[in-house]
């Protein structure tokens, strides 16, 4: 097990990147996300899914919980209901 971790937070880049891709008419067959580092990042990823999902597109969400939340710092914990927008719908 690693004693700690590093994380480059690019949350503030999700919206500008999404706008650029939307302006370029980019379409995805599938969208994948792994570890989400904050509630704000989770919200922006949900918006990304809403903007880019298609009826035939696949969305994969890997919660990357590892050993649960015991080793995660409080700032990285997301409340259980926060990701409800990630559910199929």
How do you describe this structure in short?
30% of the residues lie in helices and 9% in strands. The protein contains 2 helices and 2 strands. It has helices at 11-23, 39-52, and strands at residues 30-33, 58-61.
Task: Walk me through the structure.
The protein is of the alpha+beta class and 89 residues long. 30% of the residues lie in helices and 9% in strands. The chain contains two helices and two strands. The chain has helices spanning 11-23, 39-52; strands at residues 30-33, 58-61. Strands 1-2 form a two-stranded parallel sheet. Helix 1 (11-23) runs parallel beside helix 2 (39-52). The protein starts with 10 loop residues before the first helix and ends in a 28-residue tail after the last strand.
Biggest sheet overview? 2 strands, parallel
Q: Report the structural category.
A: alpha+beta
C-alpha Rg, in Å? 14 Å
Number of helices: 2
Overall average residue pLDDT = 79
Shape: globular
Question: What is the β-strand count?
Answer: 2
Unreliably modeled segments: none
Trace the largest sheet across and list its strands: 1-2
Q: Please give the alpha-carbon distance between the first and last residues.
A: 36 Å
Q: Give the helix proportion (percent range).
A: 25-40%
Quote the beta fraction: 5-15%
What's the SSE pattern? HEHE
